[in-house]
Structures are given as structure tokens and as C-alpha cells.
Amino acid sequence: MTMKSVAAIATVGATALVLPLGASAQSANVITLTQTPCQFLETEGTDHGYKSTSKADCEQINAKSGDERVAKSKVITLQPGDYTFRVTNKNVPYNLGFWLRGQGAIGRATLPSVSGGGLSTGTSKDYEISLKPGKYYFSCPLNSTPDYQIEVEG
User: How far apart are CA 73 and CA 103, in angstroms?
Assistant: First the structure.
């Protein structure tokens, strides 16, 4: 693979995902994220096996362990450009969503964001966004996940 064939490189921890250049300027790179109760699997690297029947369950779980888990989680590193975040509700027994936004007050005001809900158990949904350089968070307010980090460099 030559450098001309690479549109973006997504780094998750020590693993680099090389995303091929699309057929047109309109195509987006797909980042796959999987939700289980109270967490996203790709950034944490393991399924903790949490059980949840409501958002309140995850609020309690993440109040105890969320900060520690985020400190150990992988930061997703991307290049600026168009992305589709394909989010799957693997086994959470209630509807979920996704929210990607800039970090801090200035980031929230100046960086692009995308959000939505309606993600029932066993389904996936695409969230499209054009990312600019900066630091972002992503989470699911309905699953009450921690805020995971994305850094867009370039």
C-alpha cells in the first residue's frame, strides 16, 4: 500500500487502522463502535460484563469505576476528514444513542458535533461527521457511558 492510497489512519491504542482512500471525495471513513451495558468496547479493550436494565444502573457503575477505566482507555487518533461512526447496541436491553462533541466549552462551541438516539438492542446506526483538528469526546448519554477521547491531528 502506498501513501497515496491512504485517506486516514485511525490509531486505537497500539493498533493503527489504515483506512483506504475512497472512490470519491464524498465517501467517509467508517469507525465501528460497540456498546454493551455502561461502556464502549473498542476504547476499553474488554467487555467488563456489566448488567444493566436502565440508565440508573450504569450511572451507579460508572460513578464507581468510570474515571479509572477512562484513564486506562485508548484514545482514538484520526486525521481531519469525513467519517461515519457506525455504533452498535450489542446487548443493552433499552434504546441507546451516540454523542460526539468537542472537549470543553470552547471545543463544544467551535468543533463539529453529531448525536442521535433510537438504537435498539442488536441494531446499528450510522452517524456522519466532518472532523476538524481538535480534541473530542464521545459517549452515550442514554447508556450513561464515560466520556471517551478522540484526537484529530493535522
Answer: 16
